[in-house]
Design a protein that fits this description.
- With 280 residues, this protein is α/β, with parallel strands linked by helices.
- It has helices spanning 22-32, 49-58, 71-77, 83-88, 108-118, 134-145, 157-167, 204-207, 228-235, 244-259, 267-277, and strands at residues 8-14, 37-43, 63-66, 80-81, 93-96, 102-105, 126-130, 149-154, 171-174, 187-190, 216-219, 239-241.
- Strand 7 (126-130), helix 6 (134-145) and strand 8 (149-154) form a beta-alpha-beta unit.
- The longest helix has 16 residues, at 244-259.
- It is globular, with a radius of gyration of 19 Å.
- It binds NADPH dihydro-nicotinamide-adenine-dinucleotide phosphate.
- NADPH dihydro-nicotinamide-adenine-dinucleotide phosphate binds next to helix 6 and helix 10.
């Protein structure tokens, strides 16, 4: 890749940001579509988001992805928000418009649904969502808005109640009670950070004992790809959907806005990310 004064630029802001696989993905898409573009990781500490965004906009960047811990500050920063951003209460994709304004989107929820569809999963009837953080909120909003009944369970009950109130929809159950309600669900989503890094930390197998045979089990955690939850689900012959596809799907809208092409989710992109996650 040769970067010149006319190269289209985008990137991801986070703190830390070195773990992000977004540069790998976007630069792969630039190369495979023969686009004169580059996507860079940008470590920006908490409290410095505004000044960083203003600087990048002035320097001619097309836009920016925003990750932990900046998604809520990005929501406050942008001039206008998409409906998805308003529902999620967060922004992960910013477009620097030609007129000097900024538009913020949250693509996590749409990415989650697109990943389900890519795995041949149709619209769900009743989803059990575990978690009440940023990922859970985006997933819960997308499912609710698709017409799915949702039940939210979170270790800290008050956060689940606050999420239900913010979304103006859904039900809440206590954390210990969710496995008992699984029989009525056709989708289970782990949107907590449980399982990140492969640590079990939870009796997933026992929790799935009351699952209906057609339950789809999905995890937003993708490191490792086969999380303890997905392993337990596979042992019970339940259909599983891993979180890597969500990561790829949520990136497509930003790439389209900045570089002008909506990239397809091909096996090469998935293989590239898997290769990188496995460290080989
Ligand atoms: P947050 O910090 O906002 O939320 C974390 C959630 O996990 C909270 O609900 C928290 O519960 C819960 N939790 C943490 N530890 C435990 C535990 N020991 N037992 C039960 N619940 C626990 O994180 P995010 O929502 O931003 O991210 C969650 C995960 O989703 C991360 O692993 C992230 O990498 C992944 N993710 C994946 C994406 C993808 O594209 N595949 C996109 C975005 C995120 P409590 O409220 O009680 O603290």
């Amino acid at each position: 890749m040769t970067i010149t004064g006319t190269t289209k630029l985008a990137g991801v802001i986070g703190w830390p940001v070195e773990h992000s696989r977004s540069p790998l993905l976007h630069n792969h898409w630039c190369a495979s579509h023969d686009i004169d573009g580059a996507y860079v990781p940008l470590p920006v500490p908490p409290g410095s988001l505004d000044v960083a965004l203003r600087g990048l906009q002035a320097a001619g960047f097309r836009g920016i992805n925003v990750t932990i811990p900046h998604k809520e500050d990005a929501f406050r920063f942008v001039d206008r928000k998409t409906q998805s951003a308003l529902r999620a209460g967060a922004v992960n994709t910013i477009v620097f418009e030609d007129d000097g304004t900024t538009t913020g989107d949250c693509t996590d929820g749409k990415g989650f649904l697109a990943n389900l569809h890519a795995h041949g999963v149709g619209n769900s009837r009743h989803a059990m969502i575990l978690g009440a953080g940023g990922a859970a909120r985006a997933v819960a909003a997308a499912l609710l808005d698709s017409g799915c009944r949702i039940t939210i369970a979170n270790r800290t009950l008050q956060r689940a109640i606050a999420l239900r109130d913010a979304l103006e929809g859904g039900e809440v159950v206590e954390w210990d009670a969710w496995p008992g309600q699984l029989a009525s669900c056709d989708l289970l989503v782990n949107a907590t950070s449980l399982g990140l890094g492969g640590s079990a930390g939870y009796d997933w197998s026992g929790s799935l004992s009351g699952a209906a045979p057609d339950l789809i089990v999905s995890d937003v955690v993708y490191v490792p790809l086969m999380t303890p939850l997905l392993q337990a689900a596979r042992m019970r012959d339940l259909k599983i959907v891993d979180g890597l596809g969500m990561l790829i799907q949520q990136a497509r809208a930003g790439f389209n806005a900045w570089f002008g092409i909506l990239p397809q989710v091909d096996d090469t992109a998935r293989a590239l990310l898997l290769h990188s996650l496995n460290g080989d």
